[in-house]
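Re-run with default settings, no changes from the original entry. Doing this only to confirm the output is reproducible before filing.
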Amino acid sequence: MTDAARLDALALAGDLPGVLLDARRLAAAAPGFHGRRRAGQGEAFWQYRDYRPEDGARLVDWRRSARGDRYYVREREREAAQTAWFWVDPSPGFDWSSDPKRTTKLRRARTIALALAVLLTRGGERVGAIGSPPRTGPRGPDRLALDFLTPARDDAPPKSCVIFLSDFYEPIETWRARISAAASAGATGALVMIADPAEEDFPFQGRTLFREPGSHREALIGRAENAREDYAARLETHRRDVHELGAKLSFPSLLHRTDHAAGPTLALLIALVSERFA
């Protein structure tokens, strides 16, 4: 896609240009991601380290070792790029906010994902939406933003790093099947739970009509405050089930509220992905 065509597509994509701008600002304030900065097969020098007995004499850098009384090994930097794949919840209920002045869960999820993509591509890694080609380079996040307009697929690439961004309100059986399928393919990653403050605090009082976004389902509660305790208990149980499922399958979970700053969540996500890529 040419730059002009990409800009035209972004213009037609609603708020994606604003999301990209927010993502780049968020990435600019985040701790750095150093990409491939680890030992491996490559040509570029990375660092010297102390000699270990299992290295063998052929790995000793004799020129560097001659400067002192210790033996050193010259390590090269790994050059093979790795890919982080993103799954962003496509359900209508995810594109929702309890306050028109506050960002939707979907927009915040895309912002965090694209900010991570900016840092990853800057570090030489690749990014992709599951079902679309992996992207790299400075324009990688722009292309990824367009890929987010395509409905998410569940078939995670084998032995990959996958970041699921959702409110995780689907039944635990659905998530068990989805994450287990990814884990069976050798994938690991992270679960980023995005929540609206109204979903967390349940501030409703009196006679309240609840409608499910994207469907005709609704429920009328005469005194909504009487349902708060039961709602909180059910939400806590469901979150615990998701957390335990993720921990068991090497997909640690993070919780983020849309009324909180995204920076701390991005920092935690960077740490998890860095550990996965190490």
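The CA atoms of residues 47 and 57 lie 18 Å apart. The chain is about 40% helix and 15% strand.
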